[in-house]
């Protein structure tokens, strides 16, 4: 025989009402938050998967911010390089104009004045800063101005040779900066000649230019081109003087023509030059500078100085001026080519950033869809469940109210 006390009836009824009320509250919370899982106990398996998806989405968001930063930095650098090419192109046009033999000294000074303005404009571009105020061409030293003028007025690079990189996905990094030294300073210079050992006053070398790049490459047979030394040799015995040429290792290079004639051009390793007024056997040594580098700023500064100071009234002055114009044009073309190569490299980086950006967006969409399936509530189902739970709770409350009024004393 089982005995049921009034206390048991009340306890059981209250517990049942609390359970129904808890279920009702949970359903109401799901509807109000729009989430099916509000705490791990709602669905432990789904809660664990949602936690992993949240971590994945957080990772993707971090990389998306990095992608946006990389994209902005690369676009800013690309715009700066495009602007610098425009400035150099205008300087090149002025250089061609300066080569016109009919220009007066005032005309040359006028061109020189505009060149000074363009030089300052190019320096401002090279000192471009990003949104945070850092100089984009200073390497790791973003707070240091990339180019500053020294006491002589020459523009000198102040940064380092660092290159910043940014991780835009797991194991995927992309360079987001380039130092100004590689872009604006280490520019291949025109091949020039100099009188390295002066024994004969008035002896000079001029008209130095590359006429056959293949011959230059072949002359060094795999080694990197370096300076070429040229001497005028007196063979004696009534034989005409000859030219001798050697590379930096002392290896002889063929000269054509080998016989020396003052003022007549000759070629060695694909480079043409002209030696004038050298005395055979006197010990004059000339050097062809093959692998020189020159800052684009130095090229423009030398051009400005030459326009203002070279006296064209003498044959030597005219030859010096002509060499200045020719070499400046070569150096400016090399500077443009250097920048265009960097732009091509930037294009590859920007494509990589764009591809990663699309991948991260797709990953975010997919993760959000899976998370939504696990987390988001089905409102139609939830509202239907809420109505049913409200009905059950109301019925239980009414039933408990009636049962709670029963007593064994009513049967006496």
From TrEMBL:
Flagellin C-terminal domain sequence ranges: 332-407
Gene3D superfamilies on file: f41 fragment of flagellin, N-terminal domain
Coiled-coil positions: 53-80
SUPFAM superfamilies (UniProt xref): Phase 1 flagellin
Keyword tags: Bacterial flagellum, Cell projection, Cilium, Coiled coil, Flagellum, Secreted
One family name in Pfam for this protein: Flagellin_C
One biological process term in Gene Ontology: bacterial-type flagellum-dependent cell motility
Subcellular location per the Swiss-Prot or TrEMBL entry: Bacterial flagellum; Secreted
Keyword Transport attributed: no
Cellular component GO terms held in the UniProt record: bacterial-type flagellum hook; extracellular region
Keyword Secreted: yes
Main localization category: other
Domain Flagellin N-terminal: 15-140
Family matches, as InterPro entries: Flagell_FlgL (IPR013384), Flagellin (IPR001492), Flagellin_C (IPR046358), Flagellin_N (IPR001029)
GO terms of molecular function: structural molecule activity
Superkingdom, taxonomy of origin: Bacteria
Family: Belongs to the bacterial flagellin family.
Protein name: Flagellar hook-associated protein 3
Originating species: Marinobacter flavimaris
High-level lineage: Bacteria, Pseudomonadati, Pseudomonadota, Gammaproteobacteria, Pseudomonadales
